[in-house]
Design brief:
Layout lengths: L10 H18 L8 E2 L6 E3 L4 E2 L8 H12 L8 H11 L11 H12 L1 H27 L2 H9 L1 H17 L1 H12 L5 H9 L8 H26 L3 H12 L13 H11 L1 H13 L6 E3 L4 H4 L4 E4 L5 E4 L5 E5 L2 E4 L2 E2 L35 H16 L6 H17 L6 E4 L11 E6 L8 E6 H6 L2 H18 L2 H16 L4
Antiparallel strand pairs: 1-2, 2-3, 4-5, 5-6, 6-7, 7-8, 8-9, 10-11, 11-12
Organism: Lysobacter silvisoli
InterPro entries: X-Tfes_XVIPCD
Protein name: X-Tfes XVIPCD domain-containing protein
């Protein structure tokens, strides 16, 4: 790792502040980046990790590019009519909370495009354009202020707070952001003074909703930049990982090698949720007592983009990727699905295995027989889901693996002794057919059969590794709470079930 001096006024560090302290911490949070989001403030519709507000001045023209890209990507029967395009353009360019609603179908179609390869390229292009505009309008002027340059050299953390708050305000209201820059050029100010200025002169004359949005945005950006300051100035494991990614590799957006690098996934999640991220940093880098923390996507779309990060009360950090891989932090680095990612010579590493062997959430035969992968409920769920797929004429997919693991976890939590059948629910007045997956213990015609159910969408979207981790935790909790005699009885019970015997 190269030596680095933290200077919030240089271009690359300003970009990291814009992407992370402003973008992730105060705008994206645990929501999806590659979808349209409606602001709770006055911005209207936006998209991207570095929030691009289509309703803001000089930004609405990108709606034309968005809709043109969608029309080129969509099939002939999914394209919008000229009249629909005109209506969408008006609503997407409208600021505020009213008069710009999109239907669920419109959102679904547009978000499908934004998650596609050309859609992602469109969003990333907006982010880069936004960063360049912020540098030209905010970063460059700030870097020319003599007293702020001196502060950056003597107290870079405080200078970074000023940069983050100014950038955030400019993104929310360019007029008020420009006023703040003029105020900074007029004389030296502390971070606390700038915070107070934004909460008073910076919002005077604005509507109450806009004032509230600016104040909360300021505070969220501060939380993000303070965590970033810790990462930039610390010497611990997470600080080193941060500087390696952001400064050595130039990965300021934390997007390069995302699925394969747990450091990147962890840092992304920490910056999205700075309060939980600060807990993780305090324990890992500063040796503070561990306090449980969990960071996960706010909805199904977000969970397709970001990893689920958890730290238990013992300080064990686990990262479950959107693909279903489970990374566990160890004293030597990381393990991936139980296999060290960096092992001693002669030991087979996770990276040496073919992709089809237990990667991406698939249930491979390499699982240790004493681990949850060999749990009877999991084997039974796999067989039952395979029969369900066959009955529906469906191929076996990664979603089938997710459902198998979810059903096994469901059965264990609901006290089922085995899984004999897996079915989909029928239509009801409130739910469509197939809305729920049902695990059945016993004969389908037996009135005494036992059942458990869960939403099908949850079952197929929950990563395999996450379900297996929960299954293992339940087994460990059970083992710690029973006597040796009960354990012996439990070890006999599965065999009796396999023989079809009853007690």
């Amino acid at each position: 790792m190269t030596d680095h001096t933290y200077n919030p006024l240089e271009r690359s560090t300003f970009e990291a502040i814009a992407y992370n302290a402003v973008g992730r911490a105060s705008e994206t949070n645990a929501y999806a980046v590659y979808q349209l989001s409606h602001s709770t403030g006055n911005s209207g519709w936006s998209v991207g990790a570095v929030q691009w507000d289509f309703g803001q001045t000089n930004r609405g023209h990108k709606v034309d590019e968005l809709l043109a890209g969608y029309q080129a990507w969509a099939g002939a029967d999914e394209r919008f009519s000229d009249r629909e395009i005109a209506s969408l353009t008006t609503r997407l360019q409208t600021r505020g909370q009213t008069g710009n609603a999109l239907t669920s179908e419109e959102l679904s179609r547009l978000n499908g495009y934004l998650r596609s390869d050309p859609g992602r390229a469109f969003v990333d292009g907006l982010s880069q354009e936004q960063i360049q505009r912020k540098w030209d309008s905010v970063g460059q002027p700030l870097s020319q202020i003599p007293w702020l340059r001196d502060l950056s050299a003597s107290d870079p953390a405080q200078a970074a707070e000023i940069v983050a708050m100014t950038s955030k305000l400019y993104n929310q209201n360019e007029n008020r952001g420009s006023r703040l820059i003029d105020h900074l050029e007029a004389g030296a100010q502390s971070s606390d003074q700038i915070r107070d200025w934004i909460g008073s002169q910076g919002i005077n004359g604005l509507k109450a909703s806009a004032q509230s949005a600016i104040v909360s945005g300021r505070d969220n950006a501060l939380a993000g930049v303070r965590l970033m300051n810790d990462l930039e100035l610390g010497e611990g494991r997470l600080s080193q990982a941060w500087r390696e990614q952001v400064h050595d590799r130039g990965n300021v957006s934390l997007s390069q090698d995302f699925n394969g690098n747990p450091d990147v996934q962890l840092l992304d999640a920490m910056m999205r949720a700075p309060a939980s991220g600060a807990r993780i940093f305090a324990h890992i880098d500063e040796g503070a007592q561990a306090r449980a923390a969990t960071i996960t996507g706010i909805d199904a779309n977000a969970r397709l983009e970001m990893s689920r990060v958890s730290m238990d009360q013992r300080g064990q950090v686990t990262v479950v990727s959107p693909a279903g891989d489970m990374f566990s932090m160890t004293a030597d680095g990381w393990s991936r699905n139980g296999v060290p990612m960096q092992a001693a010579p002669g030991v087979r590493r996770e990276a040496d295995r073919p992709d089809h062997m237990g990667r991406g959430g698939a249930l491979g035969a390499q699982m240790d027989p004493v681990q949850p992968g060999a749990h009877p409920l999991l084997r039974q769920s796999q067989d039952a889901v395979q029969r369900l797929d066959a009955s529906l004429g469906l191929p076996h997919t990664p979603a089938s693996d997710c459902m198998s693991a979810s059903v096994a976890c469901l059965a264990r939590s609901e006290g089922l002794g085995r899984v004999d059948h897996v079915m989909l629910s029928g239509a009801t007045p409130t739910e469509a057919a197939g809305a729920r997956v049902i695990a059945v213990e016993g004969d389908l015609m037996d009135p005494a059969r036992r059942v458990a159910h869960m939403p099908t969408e949850v079952a197929v979207r929950t990563p395999v590794a996450e379900s297996l981790q929960r299954l293992e935790q339940m087994e460990r909790a059970q083992a710690q709470s029973v006597s040796p005699t009960q354990v012996a009885q439990q070890e006999v019970a599965p065999e009796l079930h396999r023989r079809g015997l009853t007690m």
